[in-house]
Structures are given as C-alpha cells and as structure tokens.
Amino acid sequence: MEQKDQHYIKLGLTLFFSLAVTILFFFLVLRIDDIVSFLSVIFSALQPILIGMAIAYVLCPVQQMLERWLAKKRFARVLSVLFTMLLAFGIVLLFCALVLPELTASISDLAARLPGMINAQMKKLNEYLATDSEARAKVMELVASGQQYLQNWLKTDLLTTLS
C-alpha cells in the first residue's frame, strides 16, 4: 500500500510541476515584449562592465609578458601596467587616426552624391506610378518629406557631429 501511495504522490508532483511549467511558459510568451525590454535595460547597464572585462582579457597577457620581461626592475608591475595602457591607448589612437578620416570622407561623399541618387530614383518612381494618380500623390508626398528630412539630417546633424 505504501509503494502505491508513493507512486501516486510522484505522479501528482509530476503533473503539478508540468502544469506549473506550462503556465510559466505561457506567461513568458504572453509577456515577451516586457521581458525583452527588461533584458535590454539590464544588458545596457552591464555593457560597460562586459567591455571592461573584454579589454582586460585582451590586455592581461601583454601585461604579464611585460612584467616577466621587467622582472628584475624595482617597479616591474607598475611599469608593465603603464606600458600596457600606453600601448592600448596608442592602438586606439592609431585606429582613430586611420579610420575616422576615411569615414568622414565617405559620409561627405555620400552627402554630396545623395541628391543626384534620390533624383534618379524619383524618376524611376514617377515612371512606375504614372498609371495610378491617387497612389502617386501619396507616394510623392512621403518621398518628398523623407528626402527633405534625410538631407537636413546629413547636412546639420551628421556632418557637424563628425567634424
């Protein structure tokens, strides 16, 4: 009799936990937007810590190698950390010196060529919408406002930020 009772208890607990997990899964699916927004807030808060850990992971072997190389010096650890930080800042500055001018030139070129590209696409759109006047009016209104917004954004916000 006792073994039969244990079997029913195990079966009851299994059914209870299965139902609980099913309800929990349904709740998670129902609230997926809230969960994703919560996780994005958590991740954005932890992002500096994760970036710092990644930088430390990359720089630690360099620092240890320099510390072994400077082992007989009085301030081996301080010097190795200082040289490692100088090396890291130098690499970042070199990257910025090489990439930022090219990026600025590319964006300036895009801003200069964008009106011509937009006009060419407008011609194609006009040819496509020549048959439907109602749709043509709505699309032209949307395209004109989008074109104006994009040009203003490129000229005012993006170029001033980059310069």
Q: Care to describe what's here?
A:
It is built from four helices and no strands. The chain is an all-alpha fold and 163 residues long. α2 crosses α3. The longest helix is centred in the middle third of the chain and has 53 residues. The protein is flat, with a radius of gyration of 31 Å.
What are the defining features of this structure?
single chain, 163 residues, mainly alpha, 4 helices, 92% helix, 0% strand, flat
Summarize the model shown.
This protein is mainly α and 163 residues long. The chain has helices at residues 2-30, 32-69, 76-128, 133-162.
What is the alpha-carbon Rg in Å? Answer: 31 Å
Kindly state the percentage of residues in helix: over 70%
Poorly predicted runs: none
Instruction: Kindly report how far apart the N and C termini lie.
Output: 84 Å
Mass-distribution shape: flat
- Global mean pLDDT: 86
Strand fraction equals: under 5%
Q: What is the element string, with H for helices and E for strands?
A: HHHH
Q: What is this structure's SSE topology?
A:
Blueprint: H1 2-30, H2 32-69, H3 76-128, H4 133-162
